[in-house]
């Protein structure tokens, strides 16, 4: 039997995606060849890349609006530096919102390129909330934020309206909720939470924000190059891209982002309601900024840790331990997590209360 997989990433994928990906490893499109032993320039794989790129834009509502989607190597961490390389002008500056470990990783890389203004930070409170009422300098080349803070369990709900490109790391909540994605000049996301296996990064960008830096950008880091080469500047991560396409098809078939958002809301509500009701637990993020993807919580009485840990493991739950910088527990309830699995966790929490 499959476990209830609460891992923060790499993380749960839909069962039908795993089955189709496994089948393609053995025989892709009845070709008598494996997906991972054919040329990336073959007709069959080019079709995969084209569909993945167009379906990503379609699901985000960005088709025909001047956007491009790329499936690149390097993880979200490489985007931490590709963003300033491609968008920060030589004498210019960029503005960043510091909402967690990953946001601060992006800030660190930007500083190696030029002036990096941190418009607000919740670091002093161990990132338990999203800063509000910050001012973004209008002469910055771009503003960078992180929509969902995987480690701390906080999520942005308000995005500023700016006259400059807004860049967003959506690694842990891409395709999970409806937003006006056309507000963003560039969105990036490592695949390994809501989209596919590790090894590929989705970059969605408005083409007209490029070409303004005055920098000489190495080809492999140059987003314009990747656009011109249709996301095949070099051999793309074929397996991770194909599996991501399968997840995007799964999402489209079940009704797209609007439908998954409803399901995600129901899962988050079920779990947060129990955390707030059950006297033994406490959420770590402030209520108004709680993430619907990563639910972080603590046991009020640490002496119950062993008992609780034994119970959830016995219920076939996996991956519930919190990140070391927060402690406690983190239930990652990404798109592919069924509400039935959330109910199993809620039942374990109720049982602990009954028997503690
Ligand atoms: N940003 C966020 C929000 C993340 O959650 C992660 C990884 N967990 C990263 C960036 C780094 O991603 P990668 O490992 O793909 O570089």
From TrEMBL:
Protein name: Phosphoserine aminotransferase
Keyword Amino-acid biosynthesis: yes
PROSITE patterns: AA_TRANSFER_CLASS_5
NCBIfam families: PRK05355.1
Modified residues (N6-(pyridoxal phosphate)lysine): 193
Family (UniProt): Belongs to the class-V pyridoxal-phosphate-dependent aminotransferase family. SerC subfamily.
Designated gene of the protein: serC
Cofactor-binding details, from the entry: Binds 1 pyridoxal phosphate per subunit.
Cofactor: pyridoxal 5'-phosphate
UniProt lineage: Bacteria, Pseudomonadati, Bacteroidota, Flavobacteriia, Flavobacteriales
Biological source species: Flavobacterium agri
PANTHER family attached to this UniProt entry: PHOSPHOSERINE AMINOTRANSFERASE
Catalysed reaction equations from the record: 4-(phosphooxy)-L-threonine + 2-oxoglutarate = (R)-3-hydroxy-2-oxo-4-phosphooxybutanoate + L-glutamate; O-phospho-L-serine + 2-oxoglutarate = 3-phosphooxypyruvate + L-glutamate
Subcellular location: Cytoplasm
Any one annotated GO CC term: cytoplasm
Residues involved in L-glutamate binding: 41
């Amino acid at each position: 039997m499959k476990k209830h997989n609460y891992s923060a990433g790499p993380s749960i994928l839909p069962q039908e995606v795993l089955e189709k990906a496994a089948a393609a490893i053995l025989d892709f499109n009845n070709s008598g060849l494996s997906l991972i032993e054919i040329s990336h320039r073959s007709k069959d794989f080019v079709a995969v890349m084209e569909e993945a790129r167009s379906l990503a834009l379609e699901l985000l509502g960005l088709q025909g609006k001047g956007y491009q989607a790329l499936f690149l190597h390097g993880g979200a961490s490489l985007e931490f530096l590709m963003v300033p390389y491609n968008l920060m002008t030589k004498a210019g500056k960029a503005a960043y919102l510091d909402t967690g470990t990953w946001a601060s990783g992006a800030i660190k890389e930007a500083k190696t390129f030029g002036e990096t203004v941190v418009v607000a930070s919740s670091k002093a409170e161990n990132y338990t909330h999203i800063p509000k009422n910050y001012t973004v300098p209008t002469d910055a080349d771009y503003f960078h934020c992180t929509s969902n803070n995987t480690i701390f369990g906080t999520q942005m709900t308000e995005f500023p309206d700016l006259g400059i490109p807004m860049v967003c790391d959506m690694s842990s909540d891409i395709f999970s909720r409806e937003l006006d994605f056309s507000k963003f000049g560039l969105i990036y996301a490592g695949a390994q939470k809501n989209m596919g296996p590790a090894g590929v990064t989705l970059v969605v960008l408005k083409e007209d924000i490029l070409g303004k830096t005055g920098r000489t950008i190495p080809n492999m880091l140059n987003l314009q190059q990747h656009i011109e080469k249709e996301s095949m500047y070099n051999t793309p991560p074929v397996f991770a891209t194909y599996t991501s396409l399968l997840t995007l098809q799964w999402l489209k078939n079940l009704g797209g982002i609007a439908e998954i958002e409803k399901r995600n809301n129901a899962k988050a509500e079920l779990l947060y309601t129990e955390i707030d009701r059950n006297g033994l637990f406490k959420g770590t993020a402030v209520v108004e900024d709680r993430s619907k993807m990563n639910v972080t919580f603590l046991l009020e009485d640490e002496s119950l840790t062993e008992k609780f840990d034994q119970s959830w493991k016995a219920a076939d739950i996996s991956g519930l331990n919190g990140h070391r910088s927060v402690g406690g527990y983190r239930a990652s309830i990404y798109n592919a997590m069924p509400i039935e699995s959330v109910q199993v966790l809620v039942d374990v929490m109720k049982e602990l209360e009954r028997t503690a």
